[in-house]
Design brief:
Distance between the termini: 58 Å
Helix content: 40-55%
Number of helices: 5
Oligomer: single chain
Strand order of the largest sheet: 2-1-5-4-3
Largest sheet: 5 strands, antiparallel
Radius of gyration: 30 Å
């Protein structure tokens, strides 16, 4: 935002499903493109770009509606994708009023260079955050499984003992004994797996 002259700006991160996540705002209370569905459609297209570019509110109805919907009203937006070989990790959006001087090719090249420097750091940061989240989830799953396995093992042992008691009953019919005989190996396998 400082490179083109202290512009109102937003840094967004694409997410797998849903709207991009706001990472930072400068001079804005909310990102104008995220505010309306029309702006969200524009943002979906901008996230596909590989190069910085300037778009004007007159370029499309969706963009015009999003940029001019609420104060402050903007006339143009420069989008700067932060990409590496593995994909887009963020997008910087710089907003311009109708009185502002828009960035030309040299300024867009400078923004492209800045994005090339920042994109790997952003990718690394996001990878680190995902790894921490996944390791926390795995630790919680392991803890829950470890605590729950004792209860499962105890229940299976009670079931095994109950089946053994029932099988000793001399009043059981051959049909019931045969059915219990089919259940017993599965119960033994479940016990073995749970112990393992």
């Amino acid at each position: 935002a400082e490179a083109p002259g202290l512009r109102p700006a937003a840094l967004l991160m694409p997410v797998e499903a849903g709207l991009p996540k706001v990472i930072a705002l400068r001079g804005l209370n909310e990102d104008p493109l995220l505010r309306l569905r029309s702006g969200q459609r524009v943002l979906e297209r901008l996230l596909q770009d590989s190069e910085p570019r300037v778009q004007h509110s007159a370029d499309s109805l969706d963009l015009g509606e999003a940029l001019q919907d609420a104060p402050p009203s903007f006339a143009s937006v420069a989008s700067v994708p932060l990409r590496t070989a593995s994909g887009t990790h963020g997008i910087a959006l710089l907003y311009f009023t109708s009185d502002d001087v828009l960035p030309g090719p040299p300024e867009l090249q400078q923004l492209r260079s800045l994005a090339s420097l920042l994109a790997p750091a952003l990718e690394l940061s996001l990878s680190d955050e995902r790894a921490r989240t996944q390791s926390t989830e795995l630790a919680l799953l392991g803890l829950a499984a470890r605590q729950g396995l004792g209860d499962v093992l105890a229940a299976l042992n009670r079931l095994r003992d109950g089946v053994a008691d029932v099988r000793r009953d001399p009043a059981l019919t051959t049909k019931v004994l045969t059915a219990l005989g089919r259940v017993t190996p599965s119960l033994a396998q479940a016990l073995g797996t749970t112990r393992a």
